[in-house]
Amino acid sequence: MSTEDAAHGPAGQDGSRRTHPLTPLLTGWKIFAGVIAVIAAQNLAQLVGEFTVRRALLGLGALVIALVIAVGVSALIWWRTTYEISSDGVTRRSGLLTRTGRTAPRERIESVSVERPAVPRLLGLAKVRVEFAGGSESHLDIAYITAADAETIRTEILDVAAGGPAGRAGTTGVVGAAAGGSVDGGPAVDGTTADDLAAGDAPGTPAQAPKSAEDGMPGAPARDRGLRESLREVAYDGVTDGDLIAQIPTTRLLHAMLRDVGWLIGLVVGVVWIIVTAIIAWRTDGAGTGLIAAALPAIVAVPQAVLHRLEGGWGFVSCDTDRGLRMRRGLFSTRTDNLGAGRVQDLRLRRPLLWRGPAWTEARVSVAGIGEDDSSAATSALPVGTREELLRTFGHLLPTLGTEDDAALLDRLLTARARDLGGIGPRHRLFFIGRRTRRVLLLRGALVLRSGVITAKVQVVPRERIQGLALAQGPVGRMTSTATLTVGVAAARAEIAGVDIADVLELEDALRPDAAQGRRYRDRDDWPRPPLGPHAHAPSAPAPPIAPDSAPAPDSAPAPVSTPAPAPGDDA
What we know:
Elements: H1 3-8, H2 23-49, H3 53-79, E1 82-86, E2 89-94, E3 100-105, E4 109-116, H4 118-122, E5 125-132, E6 139-146, H5 147-161, H6 194-197, H7 222-236, E7 243-247, H8 250-259, H9 261-285, H10 289-313, E8 317-321, E9 324-329, E10 334-339, E11 344-351, E12 361-367, E13 380-385, H11 387-397, H12 406-415, H13 434-437, E14 439-442, E15 446-451, E16 456-462, E17 468-472, H14 475-480, E18 482-488, E19 493-500, H15 501-517
Antiparallel strand pairs: 1-2, 2-3, 4-5, 4-10, 5-6, 7-8, 8-9, 9-10, 11-12, 11-16, 12-13, 14-15, 15-16, 17-18, 18-19
Helix pairs in contact: 2-3, 2-10, 9-10
Domain YdbS-like PH: 78-157, 446-510
Region (Disordered): 1-20, 180-224, 516-572
Organism: Brachybacterium halotolerans
């Protein structure tokens, strides 16, 4: 058997492959559990009230038969399901009677993630998800295969998406000018030990951990070093390649959850909901099965919300690789994603009120073909990061903003009062909150929107990504002489609302050349490179034209759109 066959399993004459033989057991069990959950939720009170030993035995026998049928059907589906990786993309074919095929074209592949749900992870299995442009449900799953095969297939698909084996145009460190300095090579994740997972927020990157006694650990027992390596392998699932960009210690993740006021309020509302539901059920039906049936979903919802938040940032680590930004996260179910810089359409930053002290920030991105389904998706580029981690992440995902000091501008956007940022924003008295919280800055390289009352929010849309503009004015807008401008990109949009019509028209004139002549999504390989990305020094196409009325003077920092004079009585 060849090396490829050993890695991916037996292949058919047409190059098709099947997933792991344990797949029917895992998929059949999920179908069986879903049916049982629906039946129990609808008939819990009746089942408890009419319980007898004879009925319990009959029910258990029926469940065994249902499980066998579910696994048998899953086995037939598994036998008729194959996948193929070719130079044109990834194709999966399935169907018992009617064969269907689903293809992720090579040029539309956006991200390849390796997911390890809790139960398959115990069996050493994983799922490869291929995200491609085309809609919120545009993905193709290869489930389930061994964890080692998943990494091999992930690399193979990424090579196909890149048009062949990926090469690095130049070696760059993880800290560049935007992060306040430069180095020849950033520390690798390979030097991180399990002890670092419990460490707090130490400045900079984690210290390197020697791998042997000769590397600086004389006298250390070999079993201790082996235990640390084993713990680290379990914690990171073998994600060790590339230069370290960000790593979230457990203590920081827990502190960030306790400091997120909005999330805590939602949690408190959930607890109150449980209490109110239990009281109503108790007053209506008494302390019986009705109380259990009414309170059980609410009781499960709160721990699920906490676990969901933990899964989104637990063990998070991001690395700079030849194929883009690679991220790993998850506690029980883990996920590894790849984000190519050319796939990112915008960057959204969020800093809650109590995160301002330690200067923590959450960063999310929009990628064509990847929906905002949950907090652990590939769109979460940094669940809670320090200033240095934010700047490194920004430098690997987006091109420069076009200012002399992008890092200082990001700091101002997240910390300064909105009215001190300049740019344009609402001025009418009707929008009394927007006058103090919303600002729009047009820079040489990006359109920046700042908003948020208690939580500071910043959206950065590279001008290269803009694909459309829409101007609207409703009844309130006609009454207040304001309008709404919607800026569309491939996977998101930026909405500028409540701004005077004259300012909106000026902004639209400045952005129209970007929408009309800017790079199209199919030309993303020619977009400007992020300053810290793997191909930062590769030649790129020139920037799109800038409207004459907003073009800065040569050798000077680009200025935002001019700030209009405040309206009478406006303290902004």
